[in-house]
Write a structure and sequence with these properties.
The protein is built from eleven helices and nine strands. By secondary structure, the protein is of the alpha/beta class.
Length: 272
């Protein structure tokens, strides 16, 4: 499905991207192909796609070596696009009209699956954190290939010491191996976003990288990164009555700032 055919269908059905849904449709056929290529589909497995829009990426996924494709779309106006594609792949495409934030990916656990999506930007990080922190290592999900604003993608993959390191960096590193695999310019989208975008590939780990207390870890990293310019002896004193003793137990220098702390140290701190 090339950009002209997508545009023609958009005109035929009288549909335009909705800002309140965070819709930015990808029209560039070359980019759609690259997204599927970067998803490393090496075996016939199931695919989950969030926010398929007019179905350009859906069509490209269905052309690859996949078993079943499940698409979750909240906007009922886009159903005609998806029904047209379903006619071409009648036994492969499953359309779910639902809010992706309410969908439990564990429903797909009967078979190995991957998630491939040009996510609506207004829910992209919310969805990612939800998936990663709801025991994703114990699902049959093998990987995520997701489009983000480039600035968000850079925060996701930021390593220790980077000024871009954040809460989402910590969570992504704990459950996955994240990597930026493609940069995408605004001209590939309709409407053109004001920022560049980037595709991130997440290899899901078989278990979290380190032992941790999830609730305590969330509290610690939320508190620390809410005041990321402060030394942790100051930002974490609300979490630990004797903050300097707690930091010393796990080998964290009290003068460090959160972006300079190893993931393991945060995890160890959550177990105190």
């Amino acid at each position: 499905m090339n950009s002209n055919s997508i545009l023609n269908k958009i005109k035929i059905y009288g549909i335009s991207p909705k800002k309140f849904y965070g819709q930015n449709f990808i029209l560039d056929e070359n980019i759609l192909k690259k997204i599927v290529e970067r998803s490393n589909i090496n075996e016939k497995i199931n695919i989950l796609e969030i926010g398929p829009g007019p179905g350009g990426l859906t069509h490209e996924i269905l052309k690859s070596n996949v078993n079943q494709v499940f698409v979750i779309e909240k906007d009922k106006d886009l159903l005609p696009f998806l029904e047209d594609i379903k006619k071409l792949f009648p036994n492969k495409l499953n359309i779910i009209l639902e809010d992706a934030l309410c969908f439990d990916i564990k429903k797909l656990n009967n078979n190995p699956f991957k998630i491939i999506s040009n996510l609506p930007y207004n829910i992209s990080t919310i969805l990612l954190i939800k998936w990663l922190t709801t025991d994703i290592c114990n699902t049959s999900c093998m990987s995520l290939t997701l489009m983000f604003q480039k600035e968000v993608a850079e925060r996701i993959v930021a390593k220790k010491g980077s000024s871009k390191r954040s809460r989402i960096s910590i969570i992504s590193e704990l459950y996955t191996n994240p990597k930026i695999v493609l940069n995408v310019s605004p001209g590939s989208f309709l409407p053109r976003p004001k920022v560049n975008s980037a595709l991130v590939y997440f290899e899901i780990l078989k278990k979290p990288r380190f032992n941790h207390n999830q609730l305590r870890l969330k509290l610690i990293i939320d508190t620390a990164f809410n005041q990321k310019r402060k030394m942790v002896r100051s930002s974490l004193k609300k979490v630990f009555p004797n903050v300097e003793l707690a930091l010393k137990k796990v080998g964290i220098e009290k003068t460090e700032r959160p972006q300079s702390i190893e993931l393991k140290s945060f995890c160890d701190l959550s177990l105190i």
